[in-house]
Amino acid sequence: MNLLLTGQHVDISPALREYVETKLERVIRHFDQIIDIAIVLGVEKPSEKDKRQRAEVNLRVKGNVIHLDHYAEDLYAAIDGLVDKLDRQVVRHKDKVQSHKNEALKNISASGMDM
After folding, report:
1. Under DSSP, is residue 71 helix (H, G, I), strand (E, B) or coil?
2. Domains in the chain, please, with CATH?
3. Which residues contact 12 (CB under 8 A, 6 or more apart)?
4. What's the pTM?
5. Which residues contact 95 (CB under 8 A, 6 or more apart)?
6. Over the stretch 17-27, which tens digit does the pLDDT of each residue have?
């Protein structure tokens, strides 16, 4: 799995990179077939005073791309919210993939019984 972490109007410090990597471990633990993750951390225009910090992710898995973003007052809070959303989406994707595999096995075994 490749991780690309970039910043728009934000310098990515080693501490911030480590924080993102530790948060992503939870997502990777739920679903290990991730191809790559691209995360963009940024600061929005000053007109949006209450929620200026932005965290955005593109996660590629086999046959699908999950794109999410989250805005917050603090960059760490934006990362936390993003990882929470991402975790839910990855679990949904994993359940969907597993249910399709189980349906295929049921169809094969049911058609084999007709003989």
Report:
1. strand
2. 2-113 (3.30.160.100)
3. 5, 6, 41
4. 0.81
5. none
6. 999 999 999 88
